[in-house]
Specification:
By secondary structure, the protein is mainly alpha-helical. It is built from 10 helices and 3 strands, in the order ααβααββαααααα. The protein has a 3-stranded antiparallel beta sheet.
């Protein structure tokens, strides 16, 4: 890994790289950096009080994860997935999160189910438990998938969430979005309460895939060739 190479020279750069990565990733997830925007390493370094090297390392990591594109002599820009790419991400999410839920069901306790119920309540429009619907939605999915106890699988799921989160955030703000996500999550919770791992896997897959048509309808910026 590049971070280990950095550590050979200066261990402090590893922490700086992680800080820069977290800062940029957070900004991407929240939509602060928008699709097509050019990211200036010097500006980002100034914002977080570090040198350009950790920022450049963080940008290389984000490029490897598909969130930004680095081109020689053209700098770094925020990726704008086209329709095909977005569908691919959601199809991957459906399979991986379905697997994670199936593996999680045997590990779920009564306290875990109560936590999921509370996280679902946090998605209600007037809830004060979360800052916004998109954050609450991701917390629900992460809390459930985490019970699979499969770190490698969880890292893949988290990376896919980060790709689509800015678009999900815009979609969630649309008053006429049609997908009844509350109903989908309730169906999933019913299967969880019944301890039916196969039904949970199917409910999760269907929930993720059902989002796609309405999301695409509201996201002209991601329509590409």
């Amino acid at each position: 890994m590049r971070t280990s190479a950095l550590a050979d020279f200066d261990p402090s750069l590893v922490a700086a790289h992680d800080e820069a990565y977290a800062h940029i990733l957070g900004a991407l997830r929240l939509g602060r950096y928008v699709a097509g925007e050019r990211l200036i390493p010097e500006t980002i370094a100034s914002e977080i009080g570090t040198s350009r090297m950790p920022v450049r390392e963080a940008l290389r990591r984000l490029a490897a994860e598909g969130l930004v594109t680095m081109r020689a002599n053209r700098g770094v820009t925020v990726n704008a997935p086209n329709v095909k790419e977005m569908r691919e991400v959601f199809e991957m999410r459906a399979v991986l999160e379905g697997l994670a839920v199936r593996l999680a069901v045997p590990n779920l306790k009564a306290a875990d189910i109560r936590q999921l119920e509370q996280l679902l309540e946090a998605m209600e429009p007037r809830s004060e438990l979360q800052a916004d619907w998109t954050t609450a939605h991701r917390h629900f999915h992460e809390a459930l998938c985490a019970k699979s106890d499969c770190p490698r699988l969880l890292r893949q799921i988290s990376a896919l969430h980060s790709v689509v989160e800015p678009h999900m955030r815009m979609w969630a703000s649309m008053e006429d979005r049609q997908v009844g996500t509350r109903e989908h999550h309730e169906k999933l919770l019913d299967a969880i309460r019944a301890g039916d791992a196969s039904a949970c896997e199917e409910a999760m897959r269907q929930h993720v895939l059902d989002t796609v048509p309405d999301l695409m309808r509201h996201m002209p910026s991601v329509h590409g060739p």
